[in-house]
Amino acid sequence: MERTPTGTPVGVDDPYDHAGRCDHLTSDGACRLAREYADRDPAFARERARADYDCVAAAEGCDFRDCPHYASTTSGRECVRCGLEEVRMAHDSTARPLLEAHHLSYGGRDGDGAHGGGDSDGDGDGDKPSHEITVALCRWCHTKVHKSFARIDDDASPDVEALAEREGRRTKELDELGFQTARDRAGDE
């Protein structure tokens, strides 16, 4: 099983089995990083410009592993392990989110802060993996994955504590949506 830089398990054997579409991929199949942020890696941007900014994975026989700048970070609204949905409290800055981004692989960084480093083929076998891959996990599943042999693809149900926290937030949310007349709010009799 893959491990974090500190040695805790990430819950998968191959992060790419759970990776999604590249964050830099546009709807027309172009590489946004090369087109809009060429200064981050000028050589890569020149190469993509010669290929009409087509995504590296769009080339025949290639996939996202072949791109030195591939990144798949979560924007998930539910835990990929147990299915717990996020309920955010808009006006409570102290409320900890129910979901957290869980790294399956960490993007390597060169000395100058640019992505890359590690192995050149992007397969994560070098000293530093070269691609950042994240999924959404609830706090409870996140702890289980890092502190035990739990896997992100286990058939799991949300913890009782997680369900209670989510329902407590939904109750607060419904209370805020409830209608109350001005007379009731002011306490007039």
From TrEMBL:
Out of the domains of life, which is the source? Archaea
Q: Where do the record's region annotations for Disordered lie?
A: 104-128, 153-189
Protein source organism:
Haloferax denitrificans ATCC 35960
Q: Which InterPro entries match?
A: DUF7097
Which residue windows does the record flag with biased composition (Basic and acidic residues)? Answer: 104-113, 163-175
This protein is called Uncharacterized protein
